[in-house]
């Protein structure tokens, strides 16, 4: 069995900047490259569920994420997600009680030199492997229980409710 199932959904972590006249757009996930460069040795599966900015996620999208988590064999699940609605998705997954599910993302795209993505992914993997079953958000060195966290846009971080 796989040690860790990783689902990508898009969000800032996957955004690509094309040129000075472009806006960021969600592109292919850099997660496999990040994990390879970090020499991650655990057995993981990586599945892209969607490539959306989290502000574009619908309840149907959250149902897809929920079904994927429930149906996967792994007991430890990491979901990369846009930060704007990450807390909403975490809350929608909150009653999945038999797995450890951790959502993470980034305030800056992983492809930028100055990004929190790489740290957040590594930290979230550790949280997924060490926490008891439940649903969590792991961002910038802190782990929050689903349902009691929100994004503080002004501070550019997540805080407990």
In short:
By secondary structure, this protein is α/β, with parallel strands linked by helices. It contains four helices and ten strands, in the order βββαβαβαβαββββ.
How would you summarize the topology of this molecule?
Blueprint: E1 4-10, E2 15-16, E3 25-26, H1 31-37, E4 44-52, H2 59-71, E5 76-80, H3 86-93, E6 100-104, H4 117-130, E7 134-139, E8 142-145, E9 149-152, E10 157-160
Parallel strand pairs: 1-4, 1-5, 5-6, 6-7
Antiparallel strand pairs: 2-3, 7-8, 9-10
CATH superfamily: L-asparaginase, N-terminal domain
How far apart are the first and last residues' alpha carbons, in Å? 36 Å
Characterize the biggest β-sheet: 6 strands, mixed
- Going by helix content, strand content and strand pairing, the class is alpha/beta
Question: In words, what does this structure look like?
Answer:
The structure is a single chain. The protein starts with a strand and ends with a strand. The chain is globular. It has a six-stranded mixed beta sheet with strand order 4-1-5-6-7-8, sandwiched between helices. The chain has a two-stranded antiparallel sheet with strand order 2-3. The model has no long low-confidence stretch (mean pLDDT 87). The protein is 26% helix and 30% strand. The chain has one domain (4-160): Rossmann fold. It has 161 residues and is an alpha/beta fold. It has helices at residues 31-37, 59-71, 86-93, 117-130; strands at residues 4-10, 15-16, 25-26, 44-52, 76-80, 100-104, 134-139, 142-145, 149-152, 157-160.
């Amino acid at each position: 069995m796989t040690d860790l199932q990783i689902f990508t959904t898009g969000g800032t972590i996957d955004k690509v900047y094309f040129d000075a006249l472009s806006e960021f757009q969600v592109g292919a996930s850099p997660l496999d490259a990040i994990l390879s460069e970090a020499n991650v040795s655990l057995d993981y599966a990586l599945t892209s569920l969607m490539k959306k900015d989290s502000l574009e996620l619908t309840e149907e999208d959250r149902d897809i994420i929920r079904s994927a988590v429930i149906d996967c064999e792994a007991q430890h699940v990491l979901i990369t997600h846009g930060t704007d609605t990450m807390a909403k998705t975490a809350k929608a997954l909150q009653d999945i009680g038999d797995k450890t599910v951790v959502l993470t993302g980034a305030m800056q795209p992983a492809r930028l030199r100055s990004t929190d993505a790489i740290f957040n992914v590594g930290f979230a993997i550790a949280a997924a492997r060490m926490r008891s079953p439940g649903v969590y958000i792991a961002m910038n060195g802190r782990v929050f229980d689903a349902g009691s966290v929100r994004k503080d846009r002004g501070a550019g971080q997540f805080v407990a409710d």
